[in-house]
Specification:
This protein has about 375 residues and is of the alpha+beta class. It folds into 2 domains: about 200 residues, no CATH class; about 120 residues, no CATH class. Helix content is about 35%, strand content about 10%. The chain has 13 helices and 8 strands. The strands form 2 sheets. It has a 6-stranded mixed β-sheet. A two-stranded antiparallel sheet has the order 1-2. This is DNA2/NAM7 helicase helicase domain-containing protein.
């Protein structure tokens, strides 16, 4: 299989090699001329894994057809909704091992491909939420074909003709028009010790969105406010209403704890107002947003909120009359903090720096309290 180059009706099939450790892609001929050497020093030898694009869609034609199924055209769409019209959209991928056998659970089918087929065949957008149930059914059928379960025979290496036939079966199950389907066109050879994971062609948030949609009627306050179901109780403009800012800076509004950062610098006025407002209004429920350009101290003020939560937890622990009886009815999970972001760097600004003494705590704190030997 590795030395084949076949020309099909949907275009030529090419085979490429990719070495993850070198970050280099080369033609399969070069790859075959440089076979992996035996392992040394007990290290596992790299193996070849074949990343097969089982089907793709021309981006421009597909998006145009999808818009037309919603009775929309590029001329009527606002600029922020215009999509790229060049390139291809991957519809499905699989992984084969070095013997050409399908690696279980690596079939990935794009939800876009199913949604496109559904809209072009039925025009009924109300069926789109059925994707999760349909996905399980389609995946099972295609995997049965790839593993030859229906034949009752032992699995055999998949040939190009097997892959192309499977690609067309998948196209029909997704109800994609023939003119929009690009069958198997390439295989990428990946050199690594273990099989690569299957592609993520669907949104990571589908399950969360389904759960959110199903619980809208009983949504917690923070989520209800985020979705606009529950309106802000008393909206006001912090840039114009200076009296409200003054109220937030009333001494009784200050939390009892501060984060002893390097230099022991206090927060500026707006930072402190934001911290006071959060600690006061979100003691039980709710949602608060802090906006500002990069470098204005949004992440920095989170440290004072962490200090407030830690002190609140300590106060509740101090309420235990007899430590030998355990924590009683106190739920320590009420003081958990989740740092989440779609940007890993934003999370690491908090999660990685807080535990580092030199970056998060003033040196004088450790010297005066004699805690250097504890965390060093």
């Amino acid at each position: 299989m590795r030395n084949q180059r076949q020309s099909q009706s949907n275009g030529s099939i090419d085979l490429f090699s990719y070495d993850e450790s070198k970050g280099k892609t080369s033609d399969i001929v070069e790859h075959e001329a440089q076979q992996a050497q035996p392992s040394h020093n007990g290290q596992r030898q790299k193996r070849n894994w074949y990343h097969i694009v089982l089907g793709a869609l021309p981006a421009g034609q597909s998006i145009k057809a999808l818009n037309e199924s919603f009775n929309e055209s590029e001329d009527t769409l606002p600029s922020e909704r215009l999509q790229p019209t060049s390139g291809k959209i991957i519809a499905a991928t699989i992984i084969l091992n070095e013997w050409g056998l399908y690696v279980p659970d690596t079939l990935a089918i794009a939800s876009f491909a199913w949604g496109l087929g559904n809209m072009l065949s039925t025009g009924d957008a109300s069926l789109l939420p059925d994707w999760r149930a349909k996905q399980t059914f389609i995946n099972s059928e295609i995997e049965d074909i790839l593993t030859q379960i229906e034949t009752g025979e032992p699995p055999h290496p998949l040939s190009w003709s097997d892959l192309i036939e499977t690609s067309y079966i998948l196209r029909d199950k997704l109800k994609i028009p023939k003119e929009l389907w690009l069958g198997v066109q390439c295989a990428i050879v990946v050199e690594r010790e273990r099989p690569p994971p299957g592609d993520l062609l669907c949104s990571l948030y589908l399950n969360d969105l389904e759960t959110a949609a199903a619980t809208l009627n009983r949504a917690p306050t923070a989520f209800a406010e985020y979705m606009g179901i529950k309106k802000p109780r008393d909206p006001w403009n912090a840039l114009k209403d200076r009296s409200r800012i003054s109220n937030l800076l009333y001494p009784g509004m200050f939390p009892l704890a501060r984060w002893p950062g390097p230099g022991l610098h206090p927060l500026n006025v707006l930072q402190q107002a934001a911290v006071n407002n959060i600690c006061y209004n979100l003691s039980r429920e709710g949602l608060e947003a802090v906006n500002g350009p990069p470098g204005t101290g949004k992440t920095f003020l989170l440290r004072d909120i962490v200090a407030h939560v830690m002190l609140s937890r300590a106060e509740h622990l101090a309420m235990i009359k007899d430590p030998n009886m355990g924590i009683g009815q106190i739920n320590l999970l009420d003081f958990a903090i989740v740092v989440a972001s779609s940007n890993n760097a934003a999370v690491e600004n908090v999660s990685l720096e807080l535990p580092i003494r030199s970056k998060s705590l003033d040196e004088s704190i450790w010297l005066e309290r004699g805690l250097r030997r504890v965390v060093s």
